[in-house]
């Protein structure tokens, strides 16, 4: 790997590492317990050093080595979180100390190695309606259409959407289509491509306020009328509280038309909703137009299939036993179809 590629990989891994530490849950709680007044969106590096030092102390007891003081880790942590120097040893220390999952650890290593099939997106707000002009300008003329779309969504034990698996069948509307755009608001943390995809073409770029874009390069160049099935995997970072209705919904906005749309939402057995509805919204910023109650199956999942979806926002929203129900009006998922 060239020096430039190595530095780019370390920066990408560092960005994902920062987002994992900022994401609500056990990782953030581990270092915030050492902070008197935590600040939103800010990682206290001395608090992180307490977590790493505690892990090293437990290891040194087993190895009969001398203890490591938190202040001795300040430069290592600063270099790692900034992406200036994220060594293999430093990355492994973060993984071990915070107990990242196997998927998260694997993603960190692949980012550090310069993988081009995964990108990190960072931010805290949803796509505003006034961003549409900037998005359309960035996308340019349409060169494909979506024939069918499938979302499989997982809600974690903390009550937040943690990941989704997207299957999409696209059809070329002109010759020489070798890529499709991916547009997201900043609730999406990472995108990783799979079947039917070669790589992500470029670094994620901002095309409007809180709106980001990259391009998925197809594994085969399509000619007019040809189709391809592609898949990609998303992880999420919802930063708010569960009292916020935006934290209790999954919506799909279709800007053009999809002939068939299939969605499954799966809830962790330790956190099941009190009520669940299937609904449509009056645009990305509008109120609920129609809704109907939905029951979970024996696998704590709910499913909907629509033969056609056109210029519509549709999806699920829910309430928790310990959170008041309220109107849902936040936009969470935007992909140009």
Shape: globular
- Provide the low-confidence segments as ranges: 123-129, 325-337
- Tell me the count of domains: 2
Kindly report the spatial arrangement of strands forming the biggest sheet.
1-5-9-3-2-11-14
- Spatial gap, N to C terminus: 36 Å
**Helix content bin:** 25-40%
- Please tell me the CATH architecture of the largest domain by its name: Sandwich
Q: What is the CATH topology assignment of the largest domain?
A: Immunoglobulin-like
Written overview of the protein:
With 337 residues, the chain is an alpha+beta fold. It folds into two domains: 112 residues, no CATH class; 191 residues, Immunoglobulin-like. A seven-stranded mixed β-sheet has the order 1-5-9-3-2-11-14. Strands 4, 6, 7 and 8 form a four-stranded antiparallel β-sheet that branches. The longest helix has 20 residues. The protein is globular. The C terminus is likely disordered.
Provide a concise account of the structure shown.
By secondary structure, the protein is of the alpha+beta class. The protein has seven helices and 15 strands. It folds into two domains: 3-114, no CATH class; 129-319, Immunoglobulin-like.
How is the secondary structure organized here?
Elements: H1 3-22, H2 26-32, H3 45-63, H4 74-82, H5 88-98, H6 102-112, E1 118-120, H7 132-139, E2 144-155, E3 161-172, E4 177-185, E5 188-193, E6 197-200, E7 205-208, E8 211-222, E9 227-236, E10 249-258, E11 260-267, E12 275-281, E13 288-293, E14 301-306, E15 309-319
Parallel strand pairs: 2-11
Antiparallel strand pairs: 1-5, 2-3, 3-9, 4-8, 5-9, 6-8, 7-8, 10-15, 11-14, 12-13, 12-15
């Amino acid at each position: 790997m060239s020096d430039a590629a190595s530095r780019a990989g370390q920066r990408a891994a560092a960005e994902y590492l920062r987002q994992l530490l900022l994401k609500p849950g056990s990782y953030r709680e581990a270092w915030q317990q050492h902070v008197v007044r935590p600040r939103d969106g800010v990682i206290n590096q001395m608090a992180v050093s307490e977590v790493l030092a505690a892990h090293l102390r437990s290891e040194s007891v087993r190895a009969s080595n001398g203890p490591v003081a938190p202040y001795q880790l300040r430069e290592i942590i600063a270099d790692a979180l900034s992406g200036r120097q994220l060594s293999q040893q430093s990355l492994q220390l973060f993984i071990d100390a915070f107990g990242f999952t196997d998927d998260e650890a694997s993603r960190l290593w692949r980012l550090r190695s310069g993988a081009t099939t995964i990108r990190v997106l960072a931010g805290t707000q949803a796509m505003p309606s006034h961003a549409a002009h900037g998005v359309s300008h960035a996308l340019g003329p349409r060169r494909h259409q979506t024939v069918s779309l499938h979302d499989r969504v997982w809600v974690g034990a903390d009550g937040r959407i943690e990941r989704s698996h997207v299957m999409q069948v696209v059809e070329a509307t002109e010759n020489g289509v070798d890529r499709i755009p991916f547009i997201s608001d900043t609730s999406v943390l990472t995108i990783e491509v799979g079947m039917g995809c070669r790589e992500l073409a470029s670094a994620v770029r901002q095309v409007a306020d809180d709106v980001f874009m990259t391009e998925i390069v197809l594994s085969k160049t399509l000619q007019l009328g040809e189709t391809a099935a592609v898949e990609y995997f998303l992880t999420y970072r919802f930063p708010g509280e569960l009292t916020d209705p935006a934290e209790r919904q999954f919506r799909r906005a279709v800007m053009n038309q999809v002939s068939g749309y299939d969605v499954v939402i799966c809830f962790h057995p330790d956190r099941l909703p009190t009520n669940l509805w299937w609904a449509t919204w009056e645009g990305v910023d509008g109120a609920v137009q129609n809704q109907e109650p939905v029951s979970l199956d024996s696998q704590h999942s709910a499913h909907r299939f629509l033969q056609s979806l056109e210029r519509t926002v549709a999806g699920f929203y829910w309430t928790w036993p310990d959170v008041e129900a309220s109107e849902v009006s936040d936009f969470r998922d935007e992909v140009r179809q």
